[in-house]
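assembly run, all chains below
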Amino acid sequence: MRPNLLPQRWSRGALLVVWLVLHGVAPLRASQDVEGRYGMFAAQVDARREPYAAAFLPDGRLAVLERGAPGVVLIGVDGSLTPRWGVRGDLPGQLERPSGLTATPEGTLLIADTGNHRVQEFTPDGRLLRVVVGAGVLRSPQGLTLAHGRLYVADTGNHRLVVLDREGAALTTIGEGDLRRPADVAVDAAGRVYVADGGHHRVVRFGPDGRLDSAWGERGPFPGLFVEPAGLAWHGDRLYVADRDNHRIQVFTSEGVRLYEWGKHARRPREGEGHLHYPDGVAVAPDGASVVVCESFADRWQVFRPAEGEATLYAADPALVSGGASPHFGPPVAANDELIVLIQPETQSVQVFRMGEPPLMITRFGGYGDGVGRFLQLTDVALHVSADEQTHVLVCDGDAGRVQEFRLERDASTAVRFDPAMAHLMRAVDLSVVLAAHGWGTAVVEPRAIARDAEHVYVADGRGRRVLVFDAGWRCLGVTAEGRDAVDLALGEDGRLWVLDGGRREVAVFEAGGGAEVASLAGEVLFDRPGGIAVGRGGRVVVTDTGRHGFVTLPGEDGVPSMLGAPGLGAGEFFKPRGVAWLPDGRLVVVDHGNHRAQLFEADGTFADAFGARLYVREARRSANR
Amino acid sequence: MPAPPADETNRVADDPRAVRLGHLLFFDPGLSGAGDISCATCHDPERAFTDGRPVGVGRGEGRRNTPTVIDSAHQRWFTWDGRADSAWAQATGPLEHPDEMAGSRVAIVRQLVGDPVLRAVYEDLFGPLPEVAGLPAAGRPVPAQPQHPHQRAWAGLDGDRRRQVDRVFVNVAKALAAYQRRLVSGPSAFDDFVSALRREDASAARSLSASAQRGLSLFLGRAGCRRCHFGPTLSDGEFHNTGAPPRRMADADDAGRYEGARLLLASPFHAAGEFSDDRDGARAATLRTLRQSPETWGEFRTPSLRHVALTAPYMHAGQLPDLRAVLRFYSTLEGALAVNHHGETVLTPFALSDAETDDLVAFLESLTGGAVPNAWRTPPSRP
Amino acid sequence: MTPETCTLAAGAGDGQRTGVRTGVRTWVRTWVRAWVRAGLLLAGLLLVSLAACRGGPGPARRGATAIDPGSATRGGTGASEGEVSTAFGTWRVAWRSVPAPVPLNTPFAVEAWLRPAGGDGSWEGDTWDGGAAGDVQPSLVIDAGMPHHQHGMNRTPELSRLPDGGFRADGMLFHMPGAWTLVFDVSRGGITERAEVVLTVGE
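ok done. output:
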């Protein structure tokens, strides 16, 4: 059965079921909630545009915030649907990748307008009431909640919580120095504040006085551990945590005692109906009849009801916790004439493939950890062949603020085989310390992308919105592309630097060595959500578009940009593609992130092959053979 | 087999009076909450000091297999998750665990005071027992359950009284450990084979069957058993994740060493604690270098392979009924839990044939040593 | 276990069927020889601290001439002391294990002494420009793992300084026989450079 990928309208019947379920009168089996557990699948709404957070209004309506096509969808108590409202942009009342939603007692909606670094208040039908928190206070805010007359905002990009009064005047900040990319916040009746401390993979509790008084969890797939906890809800006397990269919801007492979990990892492409895939928002109906879970990665949301029977029926299958489920590739990729380097976010490891039919993994290194040789948050990789012909892999780590350089020690005389000991760490570079040591200021650097040629290393600093230029010995030479949100970097044959600006959705070109900007190309008309960039021979540029499930070639055959790809599982079809690299033979490799695979294309754009997770590769090959 | 290493944390470990006291206590059901369970109930001397069950059954049913006590003095860590770093620290656990002997340290003090034989042996060794006047009938710390009667009784005692009780409780445990140090086995067929080989004595081959010798080859070679099973007890004494499928799905969340390391550091009875007799020694130093990481989730202690043929069923929860099942599991890794994203990759399937399985079983059976002397396998005489 | 001894062991059973006594005797003699050649591997199986890395006598000292001038970033198998360069040649690390050789599954310590590799190889000739950070002394972290099995040690070594300026890591433990990689991470001014030594224990 081919999964649903193309946008579709909800059927009236499906909506009715959702509505009935939300209000606890669903014509499903009557359930007795023996132990007060949720977990039974009730309904699913597909083909949305990245639903990220949900909230129940005082009048019983459900609001779901979507960030792919930014706006809000309402389901009324009578089952009626309000078409999604919302306009993308940065003017007042417009939204850019909004990622936080809460309902006020007055029945209005507060939205964290993440891409515009502000909080706006709307009526449920989309009329802007006011900008509650304007630019300058917050950096990429996500979750927010209103409790005890105060507004708590996860100020994700500033790694803290900001507390404001109802009018939006900042009162205090919480957790500075204790939090890393806090994703959501919840407050209990006693005024204690719970934070999904995403980058530390834990939940932190602050007392009503703002002092950290408890924290639990660390990174891992096991019960009570988290990987990128993203969403919180406080209901009754329980804390619901959307444990995003573990594909489950975990439930705790206020003291951090884990009560139970639900959510099973998908085994088949796009499998839902109780299986969760990167849940990032969770909301419990005020009457406790249902729980809504948003899965922006899967472009859907699901409704769960109280569980029946054994808790293990709903919990993650231990055999699938790692081994059974296909890991994702990406987001980035690097390639040379012999090797393709990818990352595996689940394990925070770097994987090296040797070109062939199909490419074979020859080593894997890293793993999660803050020690040298390990990674906290892999963001990009680059390949480099040194003067003495050694293959080096440079690895960018956003949370650690670090670039690490590895040497691949290969015995060319032996047959190609997997060698777990092939990579040797040579050097780790703590960027903030290096900059400070050489008088470049004390700002924290969050490296997001890297490019390397014989003379220069370019590192995109996501936090500083700039590109740092280093020589081969990591002496900082200068700064370029200031003010640009570089999501990826590429180097042309002429040494010019190509910066993919995710904020302005355009490509900017800089002189070699980090000089002046010489050109900017395309723009938001062309890209929905640019993912990666590669520059090949003769200046052929390819940009992947995660939002449109394809890639754009600049310029195309007839001199104008051409778009290839469509959402799907087949050859040349994608689901949220990210990194891209040209191979020296003129072929192209695209990380098909959401499809657990990488696809190879000939220079003319025809599909050549795919590698990665078996089920997904088979779909591509099968459709190519048709 | 060399003599077991000294236990510096237990100054009475090799004191014959402590051995006698421990011997008396090991078989004494009076230490249990209801007076019906002794250490020997689960560590049955006639079953190589195990219970033959998948998981221990005392007052309730536990989650883990009852390990043998024979040769345990060679162990670096105790229990499957290493929550104890000495034999005496281990002994404090089952005495009070509600699923095991369900006793309490206050009741144990009363039991010693009330039994003239125990009292005499104890006081000869450790000095006078404390007064029991004013002590409740039972009591122990249960911090997670403030309303538990044992916790309430314990909380009602002042600090000095608690310390007195703890001291006796620890002394009981140290005496039990002293007795258990004597539970050593005689040489096995394999030991004879090895020593003969070292003497270059050709007749040695007869002490080990050809099948066992082929099994030994596999053990050292293709099967890779030796990576973890080496040393006097054929165990590295450390922790590994074998991925052995759980007995019941509800047990799949057994955290093993991850929880064990946490419990160890939180225990008042570890080698650096106030009850240790070597607080600045090597064992105490080990606590400072203990690795605490989610990568230890689901790791369990490598068990000794001596007497392994006598200690079925196997693995930490007794999931596998016999040695053949264990070898089949390691040989195929069928049903293995992939519970660790970035864990070690020590195990790889090695596809044993039936004949090879027979050979390995023959080798493992050759590790059964001479029985523990009868005097240690039966309760001591009471005057 | 060498393939040769495996073959011998497998052959033994067949031999026993035909001519028990002679077969066994011959076989045992071969076995014994094989084991003696393999460094008493079998006996070692039963010893806790089988010492398979046979190192040279005497400690390496700071300032001593390089013990192994030819060594690059990797030391020789079985060494218990030596001197290595970090990956980009910035530092020289002289090290030794205590005790030597490195024991199997028994705690040991590693001591190490650092000097700059550039110039005349002395601290006086150290030309590093600390810039805004000033004159910062390098730090050294010592750790180890088994890359072939993708695991580290079961211990986190305790690091301290020696009175002569050297570094010491206590509580190291190679709990498994095989190839271990000992790593020295030298950091200064935000850049950490690694030197590696491969040690084989218990084989």
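The longest strand of chain B covers residues 239-240.

The CA atoms of residues 214 and 347 of chain B lie 21 Å apart.

not gonna interpret more than that til we talk
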